[in-house]
Amino acid sequence: MQISSKFTIGVHLLAVIDYLGEDEKVTSSVLAGSIGVNPVIVRNVMGNLKEAGLISISQGRSGISLTKTPKQITFYDVYKAVDSVNDDGLFRFHENPNPECPIGRNIHKAMDSKLERVQKRMEDEMKQITLADVMTDIQSELKKN
Amino acid sequence: MQISSKFTIGVHLLAVIDYLGEDEKVTSSVLAGSIGVNPVIVRNVMGNLKEAGLISISQGRSGISLTKTPKQITFYDVYKAVDSVNDDGLFRFHENPNPECPIGRNIHKAMDSKLERVQKRMEDEMKQITLADVMTDIQSELKKN
DNA sequence: CCCGCCTGTAATATACCACATTACAGGCAA
DNA sequence: TTGCCTGTAATGTGGTATATTACAGGCGGG
Q1: Does the C-beta of A37 come within 7 A of strand C?
Q2: Measured in whole angstroms, how far is the alpha carbon of residue B34 from the centre of its chain?
Q3: pLDDT at site B87
Q4: Would you call B98 helix, strand, or coil by DSSP?
Q5: Would you list the DSSP string of A12-68?
Q6: Which of A122, A57, A63 is nearest to A89 (CA)?
Q7: Cβ of A14 less than 7 A from strand D
Q8: Quick one: which of A14, B51, B93, B113 has the most CB atoms within 10 Å?
Q9: For B14-40, what is the mean pLDDT?
Q10: Half-sphere exposure for A11 (CA within 13 Å, toward CB)
Q11: Given an 8 Å threshold on Cβ–Cβ distance, is B34 in contact with A98?
């Protein structure tokens, strides 16, 4: 399994807005062109990011802009905004452990907190990485050429 | 998205073997009964765990046993054994970023190492949790009743 | 030594989810 | 008010997780 590409699409989208948001008109079609996916997918992700308060969108002939600085936007923010993981958690649990078996009856109690701990570790790491870090790396790549 | 339940099935399976492996004959049907899934699924997971050297299986009227102590078996071992995540990594990346766009051309270079870092954090945490920890919690639950 | 239980595995079915695509109603700016 | 753009519904499609049936092959016990 893998975490949906909506997450990387979201980060890509924010990077493009930051990169040319001031100068050029950014639309879902422009973004879709850079990302390489269907504009409708982009609009959905845009909607998620708007709800999360990361970008503002005005309709008509307007444009899209960040509502925070790249340094204030973390991977975790995007990850949460696009609903990367199910409410049930990162790990799917088999649904019908046998309550008449001593193990089956207690496996959930024994594992749930441990799995949450693992997921939390991952999410904490995502809070450490910002859009600014991505922009820095892109800029230094661009200077090479 | 979620990580396949093969992982929790694997842990459950090992717990049952540890719990009644010495006394009673453990077969894929017995395990399937406790876990609540089809015996074929159990056999597949059993195969994965055998390949990974976590259990030994003898055919005929035999049984299944752990090849290590519960303390030596970590969540990470099971997670790797059952191929919980794709070779491409935990995060799916949109496949066609536009090489003619400055962002599209460099987004992979800018993000890949960061995503690997996140994944590694999660996996490192899984290395800290063992089957023994699970058995301890199950035993203490059993004492309550 | 042979029988029966069990594993290994292929083939197939099904349900669900991610992503693509078309279509169109509604809003905002020029 | 006009034209582009967003928001969103409806539908299609391929991939994947799990279930299920079926059967060949191996090993232990009688």
Answers
A1: yes
A2: 17
A3: 77
A4: coil
A5: HHHHHHHHHTTTS---HHHHHHHHTS-HHHHHHHHHHHHHTTSEEE--SS--EEESS
A6: A122
A7: no
A8: A14
A9: 89
A10: 34
A11: yes
